[in-house]
Every structure is written in C-alpha cells, then in structure tokens.
Specification:
Blueprint: E1 4-5, E2 18-19, E3 41-45, E4 48-52, E5 58-64, E6 66-71, E7 74-81, E8 84-91, E9 96-102, E10 104-105, E11 113-116, E12 123-125, E13 131-134, E14 140-142, E15 148-156, E16 161-163, E17 166-168, E18 171-179, E19 184-190, E20 192-193, E21 201-204, E22 210-213, E23 219-225, E24 227-229, E25 235-240, E26 243-248, E27 253-259, E28 261-264, E29 269-274, E30 277-282, E31 287-293, E32 295-296, E33 304-309, E34 312-317, E35 322-328, E36 330-331, E37 338-343, E38 346-351, E39 365-366, H1 368-376, E40 381-382, E41 394-397
Parallel strand pairs: 1-41
Antiparallel strand pairs: 2-40, 3-4, 3-39, 4-5, 6-7, 7-8, 8-9, 10-11, 11-12, 12-13, 14-15, 14-41, 15-18, 16-17, 18-19, 20-21, 21-22, 22-23, 24-25, 24-40, 25-26, 26-27, 28-29, 29-30, 30-31, 32-33, 33-34, 34-35, 36-37, 37-38
C-alpha cells in the first residue's frame, strides 16, 4: 500500500500509521508507483540535483535542491526561496510547467497531485496546475490508485482527560476515501489505510489490526493481521502471530506464516527471510533460491537481482547462479540491462556483468525521495507508527 506523503504542522505528533517495514531486507525497486518505467533519475552533482539517463548522461541540467522521479510525465522539484522550500513540477524537457509556489506536494498519480499552499489543506491539481477540488477538512491525502485516494480527518473522541492540572479532549485520526471528483465514497472510519491494489485495500481498525476492503468500503478480509501489504500478482504478504506468510485475494493462506518476513517479488516468486538470511520461493512454497544472503533486492521483471553477502553486493540470475561477484557497497534493482551502484562514495551505472557503463559519469548522491520510491515500488506495508513522512511522496499531511 502506497502513499505519497506531505505533512503540515500539527500538535498530534507522530501519528502516521502507514508503514513500510524493511526488516533489514534492504529491498528496492526499479519502477515507480503504477509500474511506470524509470528513464531519468535525479542525481546530485555539485550540490544540486540533475536528471540523468540510463547511460549516465545529464539530460536535464537542473539546479533543484530536491527532486523526485517522473510520474505521469511530470517530476516534483523543490527550490529554496528566502529560507523556505517551494514545490513545483517540471516536464521531461526540464520546463517548469507548474511553478515552484507550493509549500508541499505529492507526486502525480492518475494525472492528479495534491499540494498544500498557505491555506494549509490538501488541494488536488491536474497536470496543468488547475485546481480540481480541495479537501478543506482533511489532515492528509494519499495518491490516487484505481480511482480512489485515502484521506484522513482529525476528530474528537468525546472523552475528557485530566493532564497537568486541566481537562482536555483528545482527538483521533480516521481514514476514508475520495474519488477523483472529490466525492467521499468511503466515510472516514479506519485508524489507517493504504492504497487500492487489484480492487482491494488494506485498512486498520481501532485496535490496529489489519484487514482488506473493496471499493465500496465493504470488509472482504477480516481484521486479523498485524501487518499486511498491498495485493500484487494476486497475492499479499501478511503477518500473523509474529510470523509472515502469503494470502490470496479470498484471504486464503497459500504460504503458511512461518517466516521472519515475506515480500511478493513478481508473479512467480516471493522473498522470504529465515534465520536472518534471504532467499526466494515460489507461491507453492518450493525454494527457488536458498536463503543464504544478508540482503537482497527484487527481480521484478528483470532476469537479475542484487544480493548481499557480508558487506558487499553482487547479483544472481533467477536460478540463483552468480551473475557477478559481490564488490559494491550497494546496488539498486535492475532497470532493463542496467542498475545504479554505490561504491567509494559515488553512484554510477553498471551493466548486467557488474561493470561500469562509463568511466566518466559519476554522481555524489541520489535524491532521498527517488531512492525511497525505488525501494518501495508497491511494496508498502500497513503496520505500526514509524514512517518518516519526508521520505514518502505519495501522502500529503498537514
């Protein structure tokens, strides 16, 4: 379940309930939300972010203090102006088609983004920067997926509590869903919510137990999980009594909950963690690649996946054969025949043989948001508070 997150000031504190759990698995992704292919990546050079193609060449010679991946043909970018951060959007030619004027913003998803200006509430805009609707009472708003966006409101509980010599009335956060016209189609009643995938969405009840609803808000899989992912390839990873397994869209367990962690990789197999080692199994439970790695990134639709042994990263093929030895500090999942590798303090493109594609092009850093998104790629889990909203551009928070 996946959000783009933007936050506005509040006295509530860290209330975020939409969490992506890594459990030291160090998983990352090569596509963005809705499986958009990545062609340009924001990489830092000389203290500013520029957009770089898969050959390692600068395509957009920009000077932004922060930048995200492209979504629906637009990328969120930020500048510092009089000590304040301002958010806007550029196209793939580098043209600032929506001026850097907002306090915060989300990535575009289904041709809609949420922004916050000085009024302080989420505003839905189209790719031309025109206002579609506003969520004046919302505390946060998530990215659209399958025509729906999760949003939250802050309501009073009706209780009176005594604190430091006076009574106060606590509040709670409840989540519902709006369509792309701003019409509330599922009233706020959940303690947290993700995004829809394959017609279902993980939501949490007041006891923080997680189940799944359909697009009418009907509970189709009961609240019985401690953690749960979005559905992908017909499956979702869930946590029961401290262990992870895999369910299908009827809620049937297809993989028993007996692992430290599970994560759907692609239509053929999932990642599992056993005794702090990572490997792959198919959805019938057969081991495809034994759990011998200290870290892994997913295959997705590639024939290769980065793996970590000790402190270094290499890559294997889908049968577990070593593609190239472990020699890098970190490797992102493959984007076609290339990946980004980090070594000796620099990011550079490598090919499927583990060799640099160019001795010339190297960069100081990758955008935090881009790295976060590439790691997620529809892998979000809904569990306990822990999310850093600055690292999630699919949820906008006051």
């Amino acid at each position: 379940m996946r959000f783009v997150i933007m936050e506005r000031h509040s006295t509530i504190g860290n209330w975020m309930k939409n969490i992506f759990i890594f459990i030291s698995i160090l998983i990352t992704g090569c596509s963005s939300k809705n499986d958009e292919k990545i062609s340009l990546v924001p990489l830092k050079l000389g203290g500013v972010y520029k957009f770089v193609d898969q050959k390692g060449k600068v395509v957009i010679n920009s000077n932004y203090t922060s930048a995200n991946l492209f979504h629906n043909g637009l990328a969120l970018v930020q500048i510092k102006e009089d000590g304040k951060t301002k958010t806007g959007y550029i196209n793939e030619k580098g043209e600032e088609v929506i001026k850097c004027q907002y306090n915060k913003g989300t990535n575009f998803s289904e041709n809609i983004a949420f922004v916050i200006d000085d009024k302080g509430y989420p505003i839905a805009i189209d790719r031309g920067g025109n206002t579609i609707f506003s969520l004046n009472q919302a505390r946060s708003a998530g990215a659209f997926n399958e025509g729906l966006s999760a949003f939250s409101v802050e309501t009073k509980t009706g209780e009176k509590l005594w604190y430091h010599g006076q009574f106060y009335e606590p509040t709670k956060i409840e989540w519902g869903f709006t369509n792309n016209k701003g019409e509330i189609v599922i009233q706020p009643r959940f303690s947290s919510a993700g995004t829809f995938g394959e017609g279902l969405c993980a939501v949490a009840d007041e006891n923080k137990m997680i189940g799944y609803i359909n697009k009418t808000g009907k509970i189709v899989i009961d609240f019985k999980y401690q953690d749960a992912s979005d559905f992908k390839y017909g499956y979702a990873s869930v946590k029961i009594n401290g262990k992870y397994g895999i369910i299908d869209k009827t809620g049937k367990l297809v993989v028993k909950p007996e692992y430290e962690f599970t994560l759907c990789d692609n239509e053929e197999m999932f990642i599992f963690v056993d005794n702090e080692k990572r490997g792959w199994r198919n959805y019938q439970g057969r081991v495809i690649i034994p759990a011998v790695y200290d870290g892994v990134n997913r295959f997705y639709d590639s024939d290769y996946a980065p793996v970590k042994i000790g402190k270094k990263w290499g890559a294997v093929d889908r049968k577990g054969n070593l593609q190239f030895e472990e020699k890098y500090d970190y490797i992102l999942p493959f984007m076609g025949d290339v990946s980004l590798a980090f070594n000796n303090g620099k990011w550079r493109y490598i090919n499927i043989d583990g060799e640099y594609t160019s001795e010339k092009f190297m960069y100081d850093d990758i955008s935090d948001q881009a790295l976060y998104e590439m790691r997620l790629k529809n892998s979000d889990y809904l569990s306990q508070p822990h999310e850093n909203p600055k690292k999630n551009a699919y949820l906008l928070m006051r």
